[in-house]
Amino acid sequence: MLLVNDVKLTATAAFRLGVVGSRVAGRFADLLAERDLKTKHAGLLAVLDSMTAGGAASQLDVAKLMGVAPSLVVALADHLESLGAVSRERDPADRRRQLLALTPAGRALLEECAALANGVDEDLLAHLPRKDRDTFLRVLARLAAAEGLPA
Amino acid sequence: MLLVNDVKLTATAAFRLGVVGSRVAGRFADLLAERDLKTKHAGLLAVLDSMTAGGAASQLDVAKLMGVAPSLVVALADHLESLGAVSRERDPADRRRQLLALTPAGRALLEECAALANGVDEDLLAHLPRKDRDTFLRVLARLAAAEGLPA
DNA sequence: TATTGTTATACTCTATAACTATA
DNA sequence: TATAGTTATAGAGTATAACAATA
Predict the structure, then answer these.
(1) What are phi and psi of B26, to 5 degrees?
(2) Given its phi and psi angles, is residue B32 left (phi above 0), alpha (psi -120 to 50 degrees) or beta?
(3) DSSP three-state, residue B115
(4) Which nucleotides of D are covered by protein (CB under 7 A)?
(5) For chain B, what is the mean pLDDT?
């Protein structure tokens, strides 16, 4: 037994990660709302950036990578397209496929989102001792990678 | 500026905590589902345990502490009462108030939930170096306390 | 009149299923 | 016949608003 086993529910990492994660995500969502975005819109921008490095990805591939239904990608892409943040064009090689790509405006929007998230990070972590903060971020990065998130 | 500012969205703590938190909460929820419980049922059991130390709390107080609508507490308590995990009785001093209390079966159920969460913790953290794990858990506890969670 | 709990209703998020077009 | 995308529908989860009982 690696970890102590008679720990209170509220003292488990699972419980705390669930609550803290949803609170932090809520604060990020509040900031995004002022830009007319939901968290998953920001996620789609990030996924496009990480998948394509400037190229384009089909909606189905995006759905698989995000772990959401293809129908949700349609709605997310509709909205981002209406904001001018992503372009959508038919793949000439297979006209069933819609290729999504970040526009310059989309890149700028993604950077705004990152700046907002950085602001949340500062409020959350800035008062911690630097060593603790570094270790926490390193472990969190490892856990995120284990969940399949892009580095 | 305490933290570096040109960090990718997917590399922020806010983004990672949101995703990791919801994935981990999902795994916990899957385990709870086999016991006919949702995450918030477990949360209510934990809140009762932490608030009352054996006594009883009104539904409104519970709702405030959990940060949910009073109407949700009604539904959660209905279900837990049907499982025999909580008792509900009118406060003799103020007959508007329903006093919720953990039954012995409720205490046992809470401990089962804690054991399930501990299992999730082990899968998540057991492979980390002990020092990293300790620091991560200590920082997470601090973040949880800052969000108002009971220790 | 104010407060506690309850019920009725509505809203958000997301998935599943049905459909269209292309292959 | 199979696949990419889209649209229509449904379900889970939760809040808000209306209501009843008690203060």
Answers:
(1) -65, -40
(2) alpha
(3) helix
(4) 3-8, 13-17, 21-23
(5) 94
Which residues are CB-neighbours of B53 under 8 A, at least 6 positions away?
A: none
| CB atoms A15 and B46 under 8 Å | yes
Say what the pLDDT of residue B24 is.
97
pLDDT tens-digit map of A9-31: 999 999 999 999 999 999 999 99
To probe the interface with B, which of A121, A124, A125, A130 has the most B CB atoms within 10 Å?
A: A121
Residue of chain A whose alpha carbon sits nearest to that of B149: A10
Residue from B1, B3, B15, B149 whose CB has the most chain A CBs within 10 Å, to mutate: B15
DSSP code at position A35 = T
Which residue in B20, B42, B118 is closest to A21 by CB distance?
B20
- List all residues 6 or more positions away from A35 whose beta carbon is below 8 Å from its beta carbon: A109, A112, A113
User: pLDDT band at residue B3, thresholds of 50, 70 and 90?
Assistant: very low
pLDDT of residue A2: 45
| Chain B CB contacts of A125 below 8 Å | 3, 13
Helices (H) and strands (E) in chain B, counts: 6, 3
Position B4 pLDDT exceeds 70: no
Q: What is the pLDDT of residue A3?
A: 47
Given a cut of 80, whether residue A100 has pLDDT beyond it is yes
Q: pTM of the predicted model, to two decimals?
A: 0.93
Asked if the model's pLDDT at residue B87 lies above 50, the reply is yes
Condensed to tens digits (0 to 9), the pLDDT of residues B45-69 reads: 999 999 876 668 999 999 999 999 9
Pair of tokens at residue A137: 């971020």
End-to-end distance of chain B based on CA atoms, in angstroms? 31
Asked if B20 contacts A147 with a C-beta cutoff of 8 angstroms, the reply is: yes
Which residue stretches of B6-86 are H helix? 13-33, 39-52, 59-66, 70-82
